[in-house]
Amino acid sequence: MAERRKPMQAQDKLAFLLALVPYLMDRDRVSVAEAAEHFGVEKAQLRDAVRLIAVSGIPGETNQYQPGDLFDIAWDDFEENDQIVLTHQVAIDDSPRFSAREAAALIAGLQYLSALPENADRDVIGSLMAKLARGASAAPSQVAVAGSETDETLAVIRDAVAAGTQLDFDYLNSRGERERRRVDPLRIESIDQDWYLRGWDHLRTAIRTFRLDRIDDLRATDEPITYRPGDVTLPETLFEGTPDDLLVQIEVSASAIPLIIDYIPDGAPRDERDGRVRTSVRVAHYHGLKRLVAGLSGVLTVLDPPEARRVVAEWARAGAERYQ
User: Fold this and answer.
1) Which of 112, 187, 251, 296 has CB 3.0 to 4.6 Å from 300, enough for a Cys bridge?
2) Residue 30 exposure: Cα atoms within 13 Å on the Cβ side
3) What does the domain layout of the chain look like in residue ranges?
4) Helix (H, G, I), strand (E, B), or coil: what is residue 57?
5) Rounded to 5 degrees, what are φ and ψ at 70?
6) pLDDT, tens digit, for every residue of 165-182?
7) The model scores a pTM over 0.70
8) Rounded distance, CA 56 to CA 41, Å?
């Protein structure tokens, strides 16, 4: 014979109702049976609690209850299908919420995280995105983050870093030269949407940084790495200068200096005037300026040498012509 649960005391009922409201708000739809099992109560008790919620609320400015001052549910669904769907919420709606733009930005970030190999098929990320969409002050814009072409490359490199094995690949450097490299992978880092591999380059016999979208014909090997992270010193900055770098004079907004600090040589003069700074950056090739300028459009201006200005101007003109 099934054991009957003891009737709830008044204090228990209040705690039950306080827990039930956010539970229902957190779900678009839930069955009476599922909710009753979650709280360990009889289905009849759960139904009574839902009916009580539906006549609860906060009086408006007239201190009298109006239809919009009460919780409401989808009654047909409740009575006919034993399903609970909150169609109107009060009181808690007055708490601060993300704006539609804020929620859309967060959802885009979560979509990017879910696209990474280590986060694939994680239901918790999908659940969080749904909560953000429901909890925003207005419906967020529909956003989608496309999978990157480097996703597969990133997965192979992560496995090699974890296993401590060498990688073999073709690499296209900033000067357009392609070489076969054998590398001890030591660290993976990202800047904005770009991913970089840092490791010991056996061809250069030095620490080098490789951008993943320039890696081709990647092969994982069974050869153990020669140098481990504790054996070498990885520079604090992602980009290290070389004697072959080219110096380019630029003018940039003072607030954007932290964004390009890795490109500014140590000791480079900075002349600040009216919120603008004139200084120099180092690049491996003038064509490398394209991405830098594109990321700071309207903020950074190339001043000198003329060849650098010409390369950037031609690139910008070619891009503009595609829209004509």
Assistant:
1) 296
2) 21
3) 10-94, 96-147, 151-224, 246-321
4) strand
5) -120, 150
6) 999 999 987 667 788 999
7) no
8) 21
